[in-house]
Queue: 4 jobs
Job 1
Amino acid sequence: MIGAKAVANVEKNDSEPRKRNSIARWGRLLLVSKTGTVGLIIVVLVTLVAIFADVLTPHNPAQNNLQDMLKPPFWEEGGSTTYILGTDNLGRDILSRIIIGTRVSLMVGVFSVLVAGVVGMIIGIVAGYYGGIIDNVLMRIVDAFLAIPSILFILVVLAVFEPSILVLILVIGFTNWVSYARVVRGEVLSVKEREFVKASRSIGTKNRVIMVKHVLPNVISSFIVISAMSVATAIILEASLSFLGLGIQPPDVSWGSMLTDGRNYLATNWWLATFPGIAITITVLGIILLGDWIRDVLDPRIQTKGGGK
């Protein structure tokens, strides 16, 4: 009889080629998909800019220089290569503020989605797996949250608490968890009826072990797809709140606050609001393209066709 250790070694040796094949498959599908490749390049570049923002900024983004206020981009008359994208109404470098704002906007987008995803995933798995009164209570809570306009809830919370990066992450996260809960619950209702789950129950496996080892891996793909799209939505929402003056507060910089500073100068100094708007558009577009590719790859109906466009 083969020993347990030998069996474990065989399983380990079998799993390693599968992991390598899976990584290679994803790489091939990504190269085939033009939109997926473009989205990944954009997301990677934006992430690197956010990580190394302090090194990449040519000027102090918070330093006022009234002598150089409202300088145009370097290619326009009166512009200078010292300020490649020009300066704002306080003489601050637009390029430096966009770079440092990348970190704040991306941080709010990613971490708010993590908060929403964790809360929604837990509630969705518990509701779908146990069913009955637990499912009814949790789903009624979800319905109650859906009945409240999310933007109204966010405005009320931000009116009570002083706006900050942490408050924005939490409030955006706790208003977006319902979509995760509903989708994950639907997946769990299907997964829990499969044979491997019933077999685990029959041998006395604890419910929490089944949910972690068997249910969670089978619903994680839906979580990834929703998260990819939700990051883009969270970035736009943060920019909207900052534009209204309820988001990131000075001296912190975000793309939304830059739009607020430049809205009164659109007719005369277009670059103040245009370049932050372009940054938001490119970032959101990249995330959506990558998320769309991930959805196609994880959809078994599309995998047979090459996994992407």
Job 2
Amino acid sequence: MHLGIISGSVFGTADLVADEAATHCEAAGLQVTRIKQPTVDTLVGAAVDALLVVCSTTGMGEIPDSLMPFYLEMQERFPLLTGVPFGVIALGDAGYGDTFCQGGQQVRELLQELQASEAIAMLELDASETVTPETDALPWLDEFISHLKSA
């Protein structure tokens, strides 16, 4: 199973979580490609079997600037990802109310529109409750890995 990992970060936390996820998934026996500057072409060229997106939320519930060009290109080019299993780890702060983890939610909805298949429910990590999101994500990652290996 070849997993592509993409992240969108404002202050680097989502990138750190994605890097730790890559290490954890490799240790579990998955082939991992960490796509640091994603485009539709780099995603297609990587020929991944599954996708993990780690995305923080900025502003009024927006996707971070580092991921927005990829998100817009995916909307414009609409590359079908029919049946490709995916997972999303969304980072946010519940103190912002309705916009909590909306960046990750937008990515999740786009992947579903592209006909990808959500492997397990999106993980929402609350910055007001955790100081170590990279380790808080590990139980979810173990479930995600297990799902990918059994698919």
Job 3
Amino acid sequence: MHLTPSAAPGSARAGSLRVLTGSDAPALLRLCDRDPVGNLFVSARLLGLVSRAGTDLGGQVWGWFEGDELVSACWAGANLVPVEATPRALDAFAEHARAQGRRCSSLVGPAEAVLALWQRLEPHWRGVREVRAQQPLMVCDTEPLVAPDPAVRRSTLRELDLVVPACVAMFTEEIGYAPAPPDGGGAYRARIAELVSTGRSFVRVEAGPAGPEVVFKAELGAVSPKVVQVQGVWVPPHRRGEGLSEPGMAAVVTACRADGVDSVSLYVNDYNTRALAAYRRVGFREVGTFATVLF
């Protein structure tokens, strides 16, 4: 489906926006490869579809073309995620998003593109809860600088009743509302179960006053053969300050590198100075900036 071209009259390379299809996946992967860390959210989903021989993109993706070349893209699902977005592409993405009406819960990705897209959408979309404009994007591509915690390991499906409440608690603390009812909810629990069953959930479990409890956790939110993105790093409030997070993250990095991953990435709010300091001590360094607009 082609939409109205937005190039200036007489332009030698007329621009147009088109909803991408499965046949566009190779071009979209090449676009993501321009910044494998910054564009991992989209490329990881595309690679998952390729591995399952999928025929669609698993969500709507808008492509901005100049001539026959895919120049920019925007993942449009629960999140709007711009990929290598030029100013002209952002104009087109914003126009299309306004015409559809807001269907996403957030805008997230490289800060320059996200904030420029939000500038175009803000006069038309109400109900924004928070704009997190400075989220350092960090990478560890060496062995960690601290010893990994030998008690941190991949979780198992038998531990799902421990892992899900820890994920709910972390999400609630980070975002400001629970992702699901206290029992985790069906869809949310299924998502966590998928992460656990695919080896993307890491935990340290110890005996607590009421039984076993998760005292450190992290998940791999996006995975490609050479780059992964860590999300959901959490230590329960009553165990903070005990030095669990740094060796825990070192264990996650070590496990990923043992699997052949070159770069372990994450992004963090700039005001979370304790987390930033901890990640730097582990060996993470800043390679860019993300931004998130929450609705």
Job 4
Amino acid sequence: MASSYDPAQEGAQMTFDGRMSYGDYLQLSRILSAQQPRSTAHDEMLFIIQHQTAELWMKLIVHEINAARNALQIQDLQLAFKVLTRVARIFEQINNSWDVLRTMTPSEYSQFRTALGQSSGFQSYQYRMIEYMLGNRNQAMLRPHAHQPDILQALEAELANPSLYDIALRLVHEGGITIPDDILQRDLSLPHQADARVRAAWAVIYRDPNRYWNLYQMAEKLVDFEDYFRRWRFNHVTTVERVIGFKRGTGGTGGVSYLKRMLDVELFPDIWHVRTEL
């Protein structure tokens, strides 16, 4: 019978005196003790795990974007493309998790919402880091992290680095398609604004993909990446509206109105806008 099967008979390690186990390697005792509901509401556990899981995925996203950026800087495009594909799939994974949270009704959320105090998802420093790394560099969003000097320093340090899109534009320039100096030498701490001259450079690539195949692939990887990112934002808006309607967010934002404004943010605007001209 299956119930009498002993894995040790096939060599499975069954004792761990002084040896590292699965739980040791993953530090599960720390991870699984990090859920500390502040109410007696059943659904608060779902809410906590949903957001903690998202933060773990975002930690991996930051790790992978750094790898993609480093690969582009040394022109290892195949590695960069692989990593960007992985990040797009991570966003797909996070997107799917909204389906779980949407099983929570407004009545169930209201049972513990006050326990959240002023905490809100827009205060996520990892989400802010991701946006800064991609090029959406809104310096006003540094303020929610002023009480944590180490996090503030990390975000400020990121503003001094070229974003993923800045590096992509440099590769376009090095590939023989002129990007104006004022774009290449702009203040990196500010967000890139859509520019007709940059759009024209992407148009050259899209009109002759065989000649500029690597740059063409890079553009499509960036579009694919942002496509999944936009879906994440849209699912966030839909979930919030479904659960709290148009109430203000716990952190003081307009809630749905704030999130809908974020839907208009374009990370790689020139690549999106060039499609109209092709």
